[in-house]
Amino acid sequence: MWKKNEGSDVSIESSPREQTGQPRSNPAPNPAPSTSATSAIGASLSVKGDISGYEDLVIHGQLEGQVSLQKNNITVGPDGKVRATLDAMKITVEGQVTGDLSGSERVVIRSAGKVEGNITAPRVVLEDGCRFKGSVEMNFDEKTKPAASKPSVSTREEGRVAGVTSPGSSQVVSQAK
Questions:
Q1: Tally of CA atoms within 13 A in the half-sphere of 62 that contains its CB
Q2: Confidence class of residue 156 from pLDDT cuts 50, 70 and 90?
Q3: Distance CA 108, CA 119 (A)
Q4: Is the Cβ–Cβ distance between 120 and 137 less than 8 Å?
Q5: Please, what sign has the CA dihedral across residues 47, 51, 55, 57?
Q6: What span, in angstroms and rounded, lies between the C-alpha atoms of 54 and 168?
């Protein structure tokens, strides 16, 4: 593209379009979105806005807005602080989330996780020691419906889940503190 001219040190060659009058051919189009890739928001990053796409997302920093990765996973790392609505296939919280979580397969709040918001998913896991304030709606379709009848939360207190019972029973099945 650059070539030396006798009268000057550098000259610019014309582009293929200028030479032929035809536009330069474009490189091959981008491949289809990958569902196995993972992106991360680092611990020193702070993001405000909406995120959507076709790869998994790990959040170690701060995020404010809305995240929609309906066919992928979202993980909020131990140092992650999120003020957003999260919509994904699987959501795992190890840090802090303020906002609603919607998982088409599962939502997991790890023992160090803190969530203030509503959860909608066919499967919800609240590990012992996690903090949760909000409501849980376990929506089942024919693909995700378990063999047994779905459990319901009998009572809820801020800071801990008081107990999960089976319909028609007052026996505590599991308890998170």
A1: 5
A2: very low
A3: 10
A4: yes
A5: positive
A6: 42
CA-CA distance, 34 to 168, in Å (whole number)? 45
- The DSSP bridge pattern shows strands 172-174 and 160-165 to be antiparallel
Rounded CA separation 89/111 (Å): 21
Supply 108's token pair.
Answer: 């997991």
Q: What pTM does this model have? A: 0.64
Q: Which tens digit of pLDDT belongs to each residue from 7-29? A: 444 444 444 444 555 555 444 44
If you search the block for the tokens 């979580």, which residue do you land on? 101
Amino acid letter for position 155: T
CA distances from 48 to 64, 84, 106 (A): 5, 9, 25
To which residue do tokens 């303020």 refer?
98
Query: Which residues partner with 12 through β-bridges?
Result: 2
Average pLDDT over residues 47-54: 95
- The answer to whether residues 112 and 126 touch, using CB atoms and an 8 Å cutoff, is no
12 vs 44: which has the higher pLDDT:
44
Q: In three state form, how does the secondary structure of 61-75 look? A: CEEEEEEEEEEEEEE
The one-character DSSP state at 140 is -
Please, which residues have CB within 8 angstroms of residue 131's CB and are 6 or more apart in sequence?
Answer: 113, 114, 115, 159, 160
